[in-house]
Amino acid sequence: MLGRLLNNVLNRKNYMYIWGDTLDIIRNANLSLINLECAISSKGREWNKTFKVFHFRADPEAIEVLKTAHIDYVSLANNHVLDYDIEALLDTLDLLDENRIAHSGAGRNLKEAMQPAILDLKRKPLSYDTNNSESVLRNVRTTNNTLRTGGINKKNDGVSGSINSESHCDKGFILSNKSKYKNDNSNENNNDNNIRIGIVSLTDNQSEWEARENYPGINYIPINLSSSNEADYHDRLRYCIENARTVSDIVIVASHVGPHFRKVPSREYSDFAHSILDLGADIYWGHSNHMPQGIEIYNDKKLIMYDCGDFIDDYAVDSDYRNDLSFIFLLHLDEDACIAHSTTTVNNSEIVSNNSGEVDRDSLYKSNVRNRGGDLTNYNLNYVNDIEVNNERTILKGTIELIPTKISEFKVNRALLEEADLAINRMVDRCNYLGTKCTVDTLRKRIMIQM
């Protein structure tokens, strides 16, 4: 969150300040993704159509904060992007586009809010913190599923990335060496050596902000998809993931859902994350809880980060929950991360082709909408069951590295000493609860999780 008191800090024109000593990690990544939980605009008025306690907005100069850190992508489906109504949202979208920062989750209409952001990830080694590449394991001790060591052997021959915690400006993916921003989901100029990332963004907050056919808003999807009256949202979720899947090697779903200050996800919450991966996504990236929850490796090949906690904000700190402590979530993909071929199917009677001869999913979607009476909130994706279309499915292979952080004086720094240990111990317990094995580097203060 870059508004309120943080906005006062930004007015000093020191755009590096809020990133503290995490800036080099973020800058040297292949891709860096965040949840942006405010409008960036000087326009609009506080939302007053329904009751709302907090309203967050940063001045347009805040875009320089994102550019300073080389942010590639922002997730916009959350409960603050429309705090200053539609005018500020539209201004935010324009500002991001002008500065070539990819985004998804909110748009000028429903179709745009549902669209994935598409980015290309170059297969290059991580370019920072390589001094420990020859370090040896020492001070080893085991606690439950946790191996604690004083050094970690590092491989620098893969693609490394990180998903940082929710910064309100929330952090997301960091993958070393910057990639080219793609503002559509065409396959033009795609280098076969690159990994294409598709990012869908959604929230179950603020149903009154839901985008419509010709009305701006967010990609609203409720967490409970089992009841009959939520069937249309299940179809919408499926459409969003399938749409991203057709043009992406890895599909990420950025999810701003659930209640606040829960140490572990509820059954309903975990079922929702599982359903997203079952529909074809590879990574679930949660950011709403204000404190980090555990990580789950789902079916041995997919990643769930239930919640990444807060990364940058001006919030009051709860002495028990310690919402000022979180992590930079770094995802290191192995060079030989496996991409396997599979097929999906669509109904022959529903096939529509574009000029390139490919299946046009937008036309398919519109056709089904017309068949259901023209309501654009209704989706019928049963056509995904009849005719074969080739897709690539990724089996993630690599390491997740968690570097503890602390918010203080309106900036984020790496957590030190006892506070780093506190963050690590709590996160390890939450991962163990989900059956995830952790290795703790006690000297460098970080957690490593193998996929």
**What's the average pLDDT?**
75
> What would you call the structural class?
alpha/beta
Q: Stretches where pLDDT falls below 50 for ≥5 residues?
A: 124-144, 147-168, 175-190, 340-359, 363-392
What's the story with the biggest beta sheet?
8 strands, mixed
What is the compact description of this entry?
The chain has nine helices and 24 strands.
From the structure above, extract its key features.
alpha/beta; eight-stranded mixed β-sheet; seven-stranded mixed β-sheet; 9 helices; about 20% helix; globular
Describe this structure in words.
By secondary structure, this protein is an alpha/beta fold. It has helices spanning 4-10, 23-27, 63-68, 85-98, 110-114, 231-245, 267-278, 361-371, 417-433; strands at residues 33-35, 39-40, 57-58, 73-75, 102-104, 106-107, 117-121, 141-143, 146-149, 159-162, 181-182, 195-203, 217-218, 250-256, 283-286, 295-298, 302-305, 325-333, 338-345, 388-395, 398-408, 411-414, 438-441, 446-450. The protein is globular and about 50 Å long. The chain starts with a helix and ends with a strand.
Topology (SSEs and partners):
Elements: H1 4-10, H2 23-27, E1 33-35, E2 39-40, E3 57-58, H3 63-68, E4 73-75, H4 85-98, E5 102-104, E6 106-107, H5 110-114, E7 117-121, E8 141-143, E9 146-149, E10 159-162, E11 181-182, E12 195-203, E13 217-218, H6 231-245, E14 250-256, H7 267-278, E15 283-286, E16 295-298, E17 302-305, E18 325-333, E19 338-345, H8 361-371, E20 388-395, E21 398-408, E22 411-414, H9 417-433, E23 438-441, E24 446-450
Parallel strand pairs: 1-4, 2-3, 4-5, 9-23, 12-14, 14-15, 15-17
Antiparallel strand pairs: 6-13, 7-11, 7-12, 8-9, 10-18, 16-17, 18-21, 19-20, 21-22, 21-24, 23-24
